[in-house]
Predict the structure of Protein-glutamate methylesterase/protein-glutamine glutaminase.
Amino acid sequence: MIRVLIVEDSKTSALLLELILESEPDIKVVGVARNGEEGLRKTISLKPDIVTMDVHLPGIDGFQATRLIMEKSPRPIIIVTGDHMHRDEVDLSFRSLNAGALAVLKKPNGPESPDYQSNAEELISIVKLMAEVKVVRRYPKRQTGRTIDIAKKRGDDYKIIAIGASTGGPAAISSILAKIPERIQTPILIVQHISDGFDVGFADWLTSTTHRQVSIAEDRMAILPGMVLIAPKGRHMGLKDETHIKFAMARDYDSNFCPSANYLFEDVGRVYGKNAIGIILTGMGNDGLEGLKILKQDGGFVIAQDQASCIVFGMPKAAIDAGITDQILPLEEIAPVITTLLDKENA
């Protein structure tokens, strides 16, 4: 039985969430909190398996409540926020992810909405998946990957960076982008598994938290120096050639995710070969594995985030177990290694 605490100031929204969650036999709502302080108290006293958290709350907001819960009684937190979000709600949602929340979803509309069933199914699915995440982790001995002399790779002609991520990805991607010096103008293409309606907000949030202008990619868009492009929800992002984006529809590529990291890595490997860097970050499952195999076969350089710094080790672990990684790094070391690989000034 998955025990859920709902933190939501709207009685109507809280009742709807409770109705949806308890429609699933193995989920039980053990409490409802109307503000952030009560959410913190009930998290400590009830010890739920997972918390759903609104961002706009009386007193301390959802971001502050998330941060305090992760400090005092860590457990999986899902941000469940309004359907029509203002910029401050988007910012709070992604700041909450940065503070330790695992996912962000839109609040389901009522049963009269045509989207009700799909929204309800998504909420139940995410709660089940995230309840399995162990947010308090052991820190095993750091893995180092295959031995490779980064100094020998410094200044090689890398022309593109491709990144794939899922659970825990937004904060990890923000950390990496913020630490790559502005003089590094290599284009960066990103696939982040994210709920419907949050891709634009994610791009805006990354722009506000890094020194990069981050945009949602468009089909046939020209790839220019310094660009950071995110695959839009519902489209696979690949490459037409070295200088242009190419999209594919979900039906055109066999994947459980759209966008898919596999699709991006495959195309980047095919087009750029040894001039590509592929990075696989925290996330459930193994999306990205098959694409990285192709990128690696074509001579590209593969970096995986290490277990200790991952929220969920699934995607990096798949690549590591397949023996295709050149470096296995803690999150804080990924940007410095990228800088070393790309920095021709000091080559």
Notes: The first strand starts at residue 2 and ends at 7. The two ends are 56 Å apart (CA to CA).
